[in-house]
Amino acid sequence: MYCQVVETDKPLTPAAERILTVAGKLFYDNGIHAIGVDTIAAEAGVTKKTLYDRFGSKSDLVALYLRRRDERWRERVRSFAGPRTTPAQKLLKVFDALADWLDTENTRGCAFVNAHAELPSPDHPGRQVIAASKQWLLGYLRDLAVDAGARNPARLAEALLVLVEGATVAASLDVAPTAVATAKRVAKSLVDEATAAQHNSASRR
Q1: Residue 42 structural domain
Q2: Same domain, 162 and 78
Q3: Which of 67, 89, 91, 201 is 20 to 30 A from 133 in CA distance terms?
């Protein structure tokens, strides 16, 4: 049985923030299963009791590490959208955000893909964070597709999500160094096709 995930809107103490920062780096660099609470506590300069007092369990610490990472990803996506871009342009800006994210945050592959492989139980709070992150992006893309006047917003959003996920894995594995740029080109074709009727209608007004 897993514990309730620690909420990120509740301020953490300086010691807890230090634990979370250290744990996040260790989990990402070495893998979740390879790192125990003894190592995290020692690297953070705290006792195991302090770690458990702040986070309850390793599972909850893993989940909070993933949630913090997801929060940064969402903020990156929103920041690239910009206030002066059209909904159709915002859909493509997701790929610009992804390229920047891979350059700065995913130096050892996708943290969520890596974590998903290490957390087989669907009840693990970390798995729930991963699922929520993907659902958020799908919803974000779908809302933009609606605003862009796409013929089938849900279908377009799903196709773009597949491109994002595929490009993430391909780029992380160094299989296709230009995976994100390629995905963006394909995405532009899909967006243009899906919104063609909207553009034609606007041009006739």
Answers
A1: 14-56
A2: yes
A3: 89
Give 151-191 pLDDT, tens digit per residue. 999 999 999 999 999 999 999 888 888 999 999 999 999 99
Phi, psi of 184, deg, nearest 5: -65, -40
If you ran DSSP here, which 8-state letter would residue 13 be given? P
* Residue 82 belongs to domain with CATH number: 1.10.357.10
Q: Are residues 49 and 120 in the same domain?
A: no
Task: Outline where the chain has alpha helix (H).
Answer: 14-30, 37-44, 48-55, 58-81, 87-104, 111-118, 125-147, 153-172, 179-194, 196-203
Within a 13 Å sphere around the CA of 19, how many CA atoms are in the beta-carbon half?
27
Please say whether the beta carbons of 131 and 65 come within 8 A: no
Question: What is the b/e burial string over 45-74, where b = at least 16 CB atoms within 10 angstroms of the residue's CB?
Answer: ebeeebbeebbbbbbbbbbbbbbbbbeebe
pLDDT in tens, 125-145: 999 999 999 999 999 999 999
